[in-house]
Amino acid sequence: MLDDIRDEMNTGVGVSSLFNRPRVLVVDDEPLILEGLTRLMAARNYEAITANGGREALIAIGKQQFDIVLLDLNMPDLGGAEVLRFMMDREVDTPVIVVSGDSTIDGAIRALRGGATDFIRKPYEPEELLRRIDNTLAKRRLEKENNLILQRLQQSEKWHRFLVNSSPDLIYTLDEEGRFTFINDRVESLLGYPKDELIGQHFTYLIYEEDIARAEHIFNERRSSERCARNIELRLKCNPGQRRPRVMNGRYKTVEVSATGMYESTENRFEKRFMGSYGVVKDVSDRKQAEETVHYQTYHDLLTGLPNRALLRDHLGLSLAQAKRTKQPMAVMILDLDHFKIINDSLGHGCGDEMLINVATRLRQCLREGDTLARLGGDEFAVLLPGLFSRKDVEQIGRKIIHSLSKPMQIKGHDVYVSVSIGATVAPEDGDMVDTLIRHSEIAMYQAKAQGRSRLQFWQPGMQAPYSERIQMEADLRRALARNEFMLFYQPLVDIATGAVKGFEALLRWWHPEKGLLSPAEFIPIAEETGVIVPIGEWVLREASAQLADWRKARLPDVRMSVNISARQLENPDFVESVMRSVQIHALDCNCVELEITESLLMRDLESNAIKLGRLAASGVMLAIDDFGTGYSSFKYLSKFPIHTLKIDQSFVKDLRHNGNASIVNAIVGMGRGLNLNVVAEGVETPDQLDVLRGLHCGEMQGYLFSPPISAHDATRLLQRNIHMSQAGLMAQAS
C-alpha cells in the first residue's frame, strides 16, 4: 500500500509560503472531528486541508507543502505512527501536532519520539489547541528565518572567499604583533610561498632586506581613516626554493601596499581595541619593468646600448659640478667617423650598424672605468673624461682611440678601415656649461675634419661658429617671461634643534623650450648683464608672494619666504616699491618675506643701498646676507644695515671637520647670536655636518640632507606633513 502512496505523491509537489496564509493538514478518520477542526482553523484564518485517514494524509503531504499537520494516532487504514515514520523516512520538514484520544503517558511519549512536535489529548479546549498551533507556527517561522539568514551568510562567505582568493592582488590581515592571520591564494603565484607557511609569521619574513625600515611604517599602520597608507612602493622577497620566471629580479617583486588599521567594534568609540591591520598588495613589477624599459630607451642608444645625448648631458652636468668642487679639470670629446656614409652606402646599412657596434666596443676598451661613452646619433660619438690632470691626458686618450680604430674590422667578409676626427674641450678652461662644452667640442671636431681628418683638435676661441649662443640666449630670455617659461622651486629652511620647517628659499628655474630645465647658473649671468634680470626678479617676487598667500589661505603654518635679489634689481630706482607691491597685493605680513643679498652687492653703493634696505626693514621686510664669509672681511656693514639673518656659505659647511672650517662657522654662529641674528648653514648634505652644526648651536640649515629644491605642490605637502618634524624625524629623513 505504501508503494501506491509513493506513486500518487510523485504526481505533483506544491510549495507553501511561510509568510502567506498558513496551510494546515487535518488528519482524522472521524468526519465530525474533521469538520470541527476545519471550522476552527477557518476562524483563525488558516487554510485547512482534510485527510480522512493516514493514507490520504500521505498523498496530500506528497502533493503539497504544509505549515503544520494535526494528526490522529488511531486510524483504521494507516495509523498516525506509520504516518510519522513515513514523514521521517522521507525527511518531510513539517511540524506535527498529534491530536489523539489516547490518554496514557506512553502514547504521548511514543508520538514525540516518533517525530511529533507536540501532543494534545481529546477532548481538547479549542483555545488550547489554537495556542499550541500558534506557538508551533511561530517557532517554525523563526527557524526558517534563521536558516534563511544562515544560508545567506554562508553564501556571502563563499562569495567573499572566492573573490578574495581570485583577486589579482595579494590580500592579508595581521594581528597586533604584525603576524599574518590571513593571506589569500595570490601569495603562491606572486611570491612562491604556500600560504599556510606564512600564517603566524611576522610580516618581515616577506620584506626585502633593504626595505624593512620603510615597511615597518606601512605594515604597522594603525590609522583607519583616509590618512592611512596608500600605494606605498616596496619590494617583497620571492621564495628562494621556487624556480620562477625572471621578472626584473628573481629575488624580489616590486609591489604597492595599501594598509589600514582594524579595531574591535565597541559602543564607546574612544575605547576601541587595536586588533591588527588589513592590507592589499598590488604587483607592479610589470609596470616597473615597462618604466625601466622606457627609461632605458629614453636615455640609451638602442643599437649600441650606449648612453644617448640626453644621458650624456646628465652625466656632464654632474661631472661639471664635481669638477668645480674638486678643482680638477675634465674634458669632453666629440668623435665623428670619417667617410662613414661611403661605407654605409657601399656595404649596406646592416654592415654599417655592425661597424658602429664594433666601433663602440673598441672605444670602450680605450677609456678608463669612470669615463662616459655615448652615441649622439649616426656615426657621432661623445666621450666624457672626468678627473684629469692636464690636456696631455686628453691627448693620450685621443691618440689611443685613433690608433685603435685604424686597425681593420671584419664586417661580413670585408676588411673595413675607419678613421675618426675628434674635437675636445677642457672644462672649466673652455667653458663651464653643458651646452657650451658640447658645442665647442663639435666646432673643434669640424675643425679637425677641415684639417685633414683622423686627428684630435682642441677648441680655441677663434673657432666659434657664425652665430652667437649668447645672443640667442638673450633673445630667448626676453621672450621667456611672456611665454611663461619660468618656474619656482622651493628649498626648505629647517630648524636644526626641532626639525621644523621655518621657511623656504625660492629658486628660479627656466623651462627652455629646446634645452629643457635650466638652472640659474646657465642664464642668470646673461640676464644680469643685459638687464633682463629686473623684470625676472619682479616676477619671482610676485610668484613667491602668491605662493605664500596660497599657503596662508590653506591655513598652513606661517613660514618665511626667502628671495634672492640681484645687483640690477637693487640698483633699480623702483626696487622698494616693487617689493612692497608684491607683498601688499596679497595682503601678506612684511615679516614673512626675506630678501637675500650678497656681501659684495651691499658694498657696491653703500649709502644708496642702506637707504633702500632701511625703508624695507622699517616696513617689516626681513633681510639676509647670502654666502656670508666669502665677501668682505669687514663686518662694519652689519651695523649699517638692518640685517636679520646670516647664511653661512656652503664652502665652509662642506668640510666642517677639517681645515679650520668648524672654527670659522663657530665664530659666525657666535657673532650672529651676539647680534641677535638668525644663522642659517647652507649646503648641508651629510649627517656629520648636521652633528657639528648642532653642536655649534647653529639655528637653521638648508641643503640636500633634508630636501633638494622641490615644486610648489611638493612644498605644500611637506608643510602639511612635516612642519612640526622632530629632531628624530629629521635624522630619519636624512638617512
What does the model show?
The strands form five sheets. The chain has an eight-stranded mixed barrel with strand order 18-19-21-22-23-24-25-26, surrounded by four helices. The protein has a five-stranded parallel β-sheet with strand order 2-1-3-4-5, with helices on both faces. Strands 7-6-10-9-8 form a five-stranded antiparallel β-sheet, sandwiched between helices. It has 28 helices and 26 strands. The protein is elongated, with a radius of gyration of 44 Å. Strand 23 (622-628), helix 23 (637-640) and strand 24 (645-648) form a beta-alpha-beta unit. The termini are far apart. The protein has 735 residues and is an alpha/beta fold. It folds into four domains: 2-146, Rossmann fold, CATH 3.40.50.2300; 167-291, 2-Layer Sandwich (Beta-Lactamase), CATH 3.30.450; 303-464, Reverse transcriptase/Diguanylate cyclase domain (Alpha-Beta Plaits, 2-Layer Sandwich), CATH 3.30.70; 490-734, TIM Barrel (Alpha-Beta Barrel).
Strand order of the largest sheet: 18-19-21-22-23-24-25-26
Shape: elongated
Mean pLDDT: 84
Architecture (CATH level 2) name of the largest domain: Alpha-Beta Barrel
The DSSP helix count reads 28
Contiguous runs where pLDDT drops below 50 for at least 5 residues: 4-19, 244-248
Taking Cα atoms only, what radius of gyration do you get, to the nearest Å? Answer: 44 Å
Q: Give the CA-CA distance, first to last residue.
A: 91 Å
Based on secondary structure, the structural category is: alpha/beta
How much helicity do the residues have?
40-55%
- Give me the CATH superfamily of the largest domain: EAL domain
Which CATH class of the largest domain applies here? Alpha Beta
The proportion of strand residues reads: 15-25%
The CATH topology label of the largest domain is: TIM Barrel
Question: What about the largest sheet?
Answer: 8 strands, mixed, barrel
* Structural domain count: 4
Give me the count of strands: 26
